[in-house]
Structures are given as C-alpha cells and as structure tokens.
Amino acid sequence: MRPFTLTGGRTRPSRADFTLITSVTAVDPQPERAARPQPEHARILRLCAKPVVVAELAAQLDLPVSVVCILLCDLLEAGRITARAPRPISRTSDMDLLQKVRDGLGRL
Amino acid sequence: MAGSDPAIREAPAPDSVKILIAGGFGVGKTTMVGSVSEIAPLRTEEPLTSAGLGVDDLDGIPEKHATTVALDFGRITLGRELVLYLFGTPGQQRFWFMWNDLAIGALGAVVLIDVRRPESSFAAIDFFERRDIPFVVGVNGFHGRHPYTPEEIRDSLALPAGTPVLLCDARDRASCRDVLIGLVDELIAGSAHGGGTGRPGRAG
Question: Which parts of chain A fold into alpha helices (H)?
C-alpha cells in the first residue's frame, strides 16, 4: 500500500509540532460529538492511551514517520490527543538531567 | 490545577532524551543500537523536495513524491521518568539532509569508526564539529580487536585534543553502554565548565 493514501495524498503535516521524540497521549475521555475516527486514527488512539513518542508510534504502526505526523496533526486538531514536546536541552545548565541519564546508564 | 484537565489526569509522560549514533555506511551503527537497547526498525518517508529536487520535477509522477529512509531506533528505559532514545543516522550520503532534523534536541552523538576504513566516518565527524554538537568517537574493533591506541586514532583523524576516543565492540552491550557513559561524562564535564568542551563556537 502507498502510505500517503492514508493521508488523503497529503505529504506534509499542517503544523510542525511533532519531533521524533515528541510524546503524544490520547485525550480521555475523547471529545463529545466527535465523529467516528478513521481506522488508522483509531489505531493511533489505542496505541497512545498511555504517553508514547512519535518514533515509537511509527515503529509500532510500521508506517513512515512523516505519515504518522500527518495523522497526528489531524488528531491534535480534532482535540483527540495532546502533544508534549521534549524538554529543551540546554547543554550548559541541564546538569540535573545529564546526571540522571548518567546514573540510569550506570545501572544498566 | 491538574484535576481540571482530563488530558493530564494520568501520570506525566517521562522525559525523553536523544543520542545519535552516527558514522559511515557499515561501521556497526545497527549493531550498537541493537546491543544496548530494545530496537525497532523505523521508516521515514521523506518528500523528495527536501532532498533539493524542484517540485516541478515531480509533476505527473505522483509515485515519486517521497523516498523511504530506514533508521535504526532504540529505546533505553533509564527510570520511571526518563527514557533515552538512540537514533542511528542513515549512513548513505544521499540521506544526509535528514541529519539536521535528527540532530535537533540531541544531547550529543557517538561517531562510530571502523579502523579498517576510518575515512567512511570523516563526514560524520565534520557534521558534528561544524554544528558544535558534542560527540565522542567510538572505535568499533573488528572482531573486538584494537590494533591502534586511542591516541593514534585521534592523531590520524585530526581530532581536537579534548575529543574522547573510546575503544569498543559494537556487539557487546556493556561496551556500548560504556561508550554512551563516556559521552554523557563528556557532556557533564562540558556543562561543569560553562559549556566549553574544548571546541570553538557555541550551540544555538
């Protein structure tokens, strides 16, 4: 199947909210009066019942990242998901975060 | 308050951080990501226009809108509130336009080299140097053997004096973990010194 048939031929998202590690979560409960979601949208909503990042969604759906981003834009605009950008990295001041990463790796 | 918004009633999503695993084609990036993390193949469908082709060239050829690029993608759970994602950068030169996107928000990078053909990773070293993205060099020993010392490798790659060169075996989980720790130690050292890691310039 051509992946972009799922997006109605669109090849670019309508907005650029989604990085590979942006976390998305289905809104629970889903908005009232919302139309029944398309099958691919419904699959995404099931997968992001708990927070999941865009790259993981794409891997689980076996769909290209760019296609998943377009579908996520639809869901965001319909109020069905929330998106959380990764914490911005400041290399000069994020000692706390770096130390957590260091400690976590040390425990592996 | 949190209770007023149904979208954030659940526990907050864990923090996500990202490290790139870079290097030339066939230096062991896939092996490294697989050794140290749960791995999933990831495809991305890139519009051909972003590779620098004119939109007009694609008129009338709808099936050539996009090209599929495969990435290595791994997840390491570091705690309840922290997940580290590894992204292997595509090695083939024609996909390098994607590196900028991948690099956004990354803590840093591991540039893997194969000592039998180190030149295949020169461009990756250039990429991170030019953008002042912190990196360490991981020397993936063929069959785990290391014929050269880190100093010899640093000299031959003309690396800045402070750049860590770490001997590793991409097939070995603990070895790959130690390379990642080496990178994070370098980041912490750079952070402690006000952002200076011995490299010129500053991250934007």
Answer: 39-47, 54-61, 65-77, 95-106
Tokens of B47: 């519009």
pLDDT, one tens digit per residue, over B45-99 is 665 544 444 443 444 444 555 667 778 899 999 988 899 999 998 877 667 777 8
User: Residues of B with CB below 8 A from A93's CB?
Assistant: 191
Task: For residue B143, give the CATH number of its domain.
Answer: 3.40.50.300
Instruction: Provide the shortest C-alpha distance from residue B147 to chain A (in Å).
Output: 28
Alpha-carbon gap, residue B125 to B69, rounded angstroms: 21
Single pTM value for the model:
0.81
Q: How many domains does chain B have?
A: 1
B33 is a domain residue: yes
Complex confidence, ipTM: 0.81
Q: Do B187 and A98 touch (CB under 8 A)?
A: yes
Structural domain including A46 reads: 3-106
pLDDT of residue B51: 44
